[in-house]
Amino acid sequence: MTKVNKGWEELFERHNILYKVDTEGYYKVTSKAINKVREARLMTKFDHKNNLPEIFQQNNLSILPITRGSYVISKFDAYKELHYNKDLDTAEIEFPSEIESIDFSNIYSEATALNCAYSTGIINLFLNEEHTLPTISGRMSSSSFSFNIRNIETNNKFPVDVQNSQVEIDGGYEGRNKLMLVEAKNSVSKDFLVRQLYYPYRLWRQKVSKEVVPVFMTFSNDVWSFFEYKFTNPLEYNSLVLVKQRNYMIAPEKINLNDIKNVLENVTIIKEPKVSFPQADSFKRVINLLEMLMEKDLDRDYLTHTLDVHPRQTNYYTSAAMYLGLIEKKREDGVTLYYVTEEGKKIMNMTYKKKYLSIIEKILRNPSFNESFRCFLKDGYPPDNKKIVEIMKKTNIYKVEKDSTFSRRATTVKSWLDWILSLQE
Known about the structure:
globular, alpha+beta, 26% strand, Arc Repressor Mutant, subunit A, 3-stranded antiparallel β-sheet, 3 domains
């Protein structure tokens, strides 16, 4: 169990929280009480439903701040699922030639991603304003407001009063007609905490006469994904509806099928690494992992929290990147940290086309992927799991023996090959 899980187990037992939620419908807890177990700031930040402590997940509980030093726990429907439209085109934006202080091929922080989006005009395009200015960001007081939130089990509305809670806004951009408030993440997400949009929305809705536009933005795999939302009833937390989604990227040098075939024909095949064979179906998350580690070395708990995955899946994705020789792990002060290898840093610092062709080379130098990809190109459709397993069994894969395990790994092979072909223009 993580420190957060252990801390909340202790708090639930100490304050009889489950009983009080069941009998009264909620429980209010102070930062002072939480601090007796572990720092409240570390014990209350759950940006995704997956991040919630086990005792919360098992009992359909969520937590919301109501003042600067207190929180309410109940069976709240606090999160919103995030769906990336796979059929949506990605608009290609030219990078301004006069800007030298942003290296758009090496964007790994949310702040830099937002600065780049503003500098390239993406913010104006998305907001449909001719000219916007960055006006607000950082931490501020929420002021006072009330709202209703849905009980996830009964569907009843639960009233919440907020009195000067802390609000943090990653970016605020004001145009002639609108004020856009952005919550930014440098990771691909399955859901997000509605509070991160709702509290800033309620604060600024009563401060300005213009339309306040709540926006959730992710930046990963060199793509900005913007999601504009609207609260159809400002007094209802769960009235959030999607208005539009748009994807943007800096116009890259195109990758075509011949480029990929050229990598395939010139790659030097290696022996299967003495590392767990990948079981990580989303290669975009492997890239996302590398992007996060380019900023700093990180431990497993932090990666799990930010990648929005189950802890077991964190192991899968770190093992996948280690299989490719792009990350390694080390022990520092009793903690296991993951870091990008020198070769990984070299690749991640390349321009778009070179970077992704180099990563393709890292995949195709492994025998199972190489032969499976050749079958894909020869037949014009991906090999089935049975064929991939047949290929894998010939290549002395490290510590894989059961047919069921081979089959699961074959699914990863197929998804990675799909990712390779998705990069072509």
